[in-house]
Automatic annotation (TrEMBL):
Species annotation: Chelatococcus caeni
Domain Aminoglycoside phosphotransferase: residue ranges: 27-255
Leader sequence segment: none
EC number(s) given by UniProt: 2.7.1.39
Enzyme class: transferase
Any one Gene Ontology BP term: threonine biosynthetic process
The keyword Signal is annotated on this UniProt entry: no
Catalytic activity line of the entry: L-homoserine + ATP = O-phospho-L-homoserine + ADP + H(+)
The family this protein is said to belong to: Belongs to the pseudomonas-type ThrB family.
Any GO molecular function: homoserine kinase activity
Protein name as catalogued: Homoserine kinase
Gene that produces this protein: thrB
Metabolic or biological pathway, per its Swiss-Prot or TrEMBL entry: Amino-acid biosynthesis; L-threonine biosynthesis; L-threonine from L-aspartate: step 4/5
Keyword terms: Amino-acid biosynthesis, ATP-binding, Kinase, Nucleotide-binding, Threonine biosynthesis, Transferase
Amino acid sequence: MAVYTEVADEELAAFVARYDIGAVLAVKGIAEGVENSNFLLHTERGFYILTLYEKRVREEDLPFFIGLMRHLAQRGITCPQPVLNREGEALGRLAGRPAAIVTFLDGMWVKRPTAGHCAGVGEALARLHLAGADFAMRRENALSLPAWRPLFMQADGRADTVSPGLAARTLSALDDLERAWPAGLPGGVIHADLFPDNVFFISGRLSGLIDFYFACTDAFAYDLAICLNAWCFEADGSFNLTKGQAMLTAYERVRRLDDAEVAALPILCRGAALRFMLTRLVDWLNVPPGALVKPKDPLEYDRKLSFHRRVASAAEYGLAR
Ligand SMILES: Nc1ncnc2c1ncn2[C@@H]1O[C@H](COP(=O)(O)OP(=O)(O)OP(=O)(O)O)[C@@H](O)[C@H]1O
Ligand SMILES: N[C@@H](CCO)C(=O)O
């Protein structure tokens, strides 16, 4: 999270007064994250997270995210719960933005994940995929293949200022992906952004998942590809096979991948790397003046993409078959 929108004290007090959570004692902008504006809200009843939804979140999608968090919690997935105001609504408006208050989740995210953490994420991801099976709403993935070329166009010819050759590498990867992107894989609700900063642990055990604002209906194995990218590389850019193995084995203990998913894993990993490279590139080139945000490095994902382009089969990620 980050802070793009400032909220005046009086406006906040009036917003919070519509809820049954007591008066505001303190509020603090959260610098972490890049997508929405987030505040740690301390009220007479305890701690909450206040989110103002920004650029990439479409207002019409908010009922999907809010409904999903409630659905998953009912099926045993620990995630933030939207707090309803006295009119029974989870969504309101604050400082000109759509806004919600959600419950505060205990736990810390890990900066240096071990194979044990990767196993925890693999298991939680598979449980999330199963728990979403009877969620009635659908939301197309707005950041899947059809969105990638337009995103690249938004970089507006400036990709090579970030790294020489980045534009050509990206276009070549895009061409390949557009030719071979798989269709018809098993799918349903996916998290689509289950990075380390969205997974909390307490004493080494996974305690909860946050940030469902990219969740959508898409291939389960694509979600796994996102997690392999986000959790299983080392700081020096190498893929850690032990971590990949731990994540995939734990996932498969809950939900076994079928042959088509196994075969598609390398291309799904390429697509996932490209998706995060592109959003990071656009953000890197367009930091709003005055925003409390630290843009994330697009080149980390350019390097991951190069690795995946050399991968021939899922065995190279640690999948034993
Ligand atoms: N429900 C919650 N309980 C406790 N802390 C939270 C909660 N939601 C968010 N946070 C804190 O705020 C930080 C940023 O939140 P989040 O990842 O949702 O933001 P974002 O802008 O959507 O980020 P991202 O860049 O991951 O998309 C988290 O790392 C965590 O420290
Ligand atoms: N998790 C994303 C940010 C949210 O889209 C990234 O690391 O690029």
